[in-house]
Design goal:
220 residues; mainly alpha
Length: 220
């Protein structure tokens, strides 16, 4: 089971980077959907490993909201607007190189000092140690997306990466507690994502673009 979780984690991380960096918004949305599906599989694997079968409720909600509803809403929005992302603050090549160096270094740091970040017995052993390092790395990746990217769809994707990183850390540290399921369900940002999509549609109708930088023109 440990090897399965580690494999799913690696695939989850690759899908996260794809969702963050691919400039074609439809393809990026597909990677987001894949990333969320892998998150559901990881939670299911922890449910079996910890014998906390209430986690399957969290799995079901993740599939319904993050694998089906949010990607579908994003897809509908993209079809009405533009397929290619608004040009971010840095080029694809520069962004990819910076991310490759930073994320690897950040992962290694968290993996090395996992006991300091989460001083628990569970965090000190595999696969929890690697899972925790990956969850923090995905969280930071989401923050990077919020800072560097200007397209409203990418902002929503960045928020999902942050949330999924938090959920990954949560299920890694305390998979055996029933309250973990409750925390995972109530922290779902589907409502916020729907509201952001509504705001994104309003931005596009007002400016003919999904560029969030144009919101500064509303001042005054």
């Amino acid at each position: 089971m440990g090897d399965l979780i580690t494999t799913l984690m690696v695939c989850h991380f690759i899908a996260s980077v794809g969702a963050a960096e691919i400039r074609n918004l439809k393809t990026s949305t597909i990677f987001l959907m894949l990333q969320s599906l892998l998150l559901a599989l990881i939670i299911a694997a922890f449910a079996g490993r910890s014998q906390n079968y209430s986690l399957y409720w969290w799995v079901a909600l993740t599939v319904i909201t993050k694998v089906i509803i949010i990607p579908w809403l994003l897809w509908v929005h993209i079809k009405k607007t533009q397929v290619m992302e608004i040009k971010p603050l840095v080029s694809f090549v520069v962004s990819f190189i910076v991310l490759a160096i930073f994320l690897v270094a950040f992962y290694q740091m968290i993996h090395t000092y996992a006991g300091f970040v989460a001083p628990t017995a569970a965090a000190a052993v595999e696969p929890a140690r690697s899972a925790l390092a990956l969850s923090f790395t995905i969280f930071v990746l989401g923050l990077y997306v919020l800072v560097i990217h200007r397209d409203a769809v990418k902002i929503i994707i960045g928020l999902h990466l942050i949330e999924n990183g938090v959920h990954l850390a949560l299920v890694t540290l305390v998979p055996q507690l029933p309250v973990t399921t409750i925390l995972g369900i109530v922290s779902n940002v589907v409502v916020a994502a729907v509201m952001l999509l509504f705001l994104t549609d309003s931005i596009y109708k007002a400016f003919g673009s999904s560029d969030t930088m144009k919101l500064s023109s509303l001042k005054g």
